[in-house]
Amino acid sequence: MSNLINYPNRKVKNIIAKKTSFANRGMTLEEDINLTNEYYISQNKALIYKKPTPVQIVNVDFKKRSSARITEAYFKTPSTTDYNGVYQGFYLDFDVKECSLISSFPIRQIHKHQIDHLKAVMAHGGIAFLIIRFTKTNESYLLLAKDILNYLSSSETKSLPKKWIEEKGYLLKINFNPRLDYLKAVDLIIQENNYA
Amino acid sequence: MSNLINYPNRKVKNIIAKKTSFANRGMTLEEDINLTNEYYISQNKALIYKKPTPVQIVNVDFKKRSSARITEAYFKTPSTTDYNGVYQGFYLDFDVKECSLISSFPIRQIHKHQIDHLKAVMAHGGIAFLIIRFTKTNESYLLLAKDILNYLSSSETKSLPKKWIEEKGYLLKINFNPRLDYLKAVDLIIQENNYA
Question: CB A68 to CB B54 under 8 A?
Fold first, then answer.
């Protein structure tokens, strides 16, 4: 069971929360992206889903007729990113990360297997990126995996400076609907044919 | 909890089985496709994954330091198909179905939301299909969603005749590695530009 993991409590709470009241508090980046994707699907604009949380199921109780009940299971490390789908014939693949620092994003927040996955997406002609939110200032940026990988290969640093992110990234604005219209940035990326 | 479901026992056993001995028995279609996808990834040929089984988590025990333990959870109905990914810049999206009948495939084995999802994939420029295995004869066919939808719209029937599947589908051969080289059929489909 070497690939079982401990999620930080906040993440587990997000997974467990089925219906969350959005009143009187800010939404997480993940909630914003999920609402945005629902909007895109309802408008036939794109078909992008969050993958289910991978769970290792050990025991199931079939006694109750109404619904099989899982009585023992563990969280597994995802082998890919959380989001993928199709937009105008393009394959999109990305992850979202919140960052509580002000002037940089620590690379350790991206797992090694996620970096490898994003590289593979690029190699197969997909559009690979991260959406990073600086929670202190509530700014969200879309950053191409290509740019992140270039930066990491040319530098010894263990974090992406905010200044660099402002320069290379696409700033995403919070709206009512869609919450975070990241496909606008993807449109620019496709126009510039700049994704791989 | 209206979207919680009862899986047939066999499916749950497949989900639970982590390491399965393949000796002395045939593999399920799902096992064949999973092995094929692992092969494609290892050969940098394509990046296609099975999505995790969607689970509604109700209770988690954090007592043990080593790993959070899920103590109550339920299976949810998937809102999409089981497989998606990218191949040569194309978005692929499909499901796999085993059929124990000899002369036809019953449409009820495809859920309504899966049909809707495959339609949406086509509309967004992806390649949408099913892989159907007739278990009695161990024949597997790749069938484009486009062809299935055309057939259903022009007929009152509740099943796809085997004869029609033989005519419209791409017969997939079982090999050692990759087990079921369905990308060969996808190559033909791309050549014929025939997927939407």
Answer: no
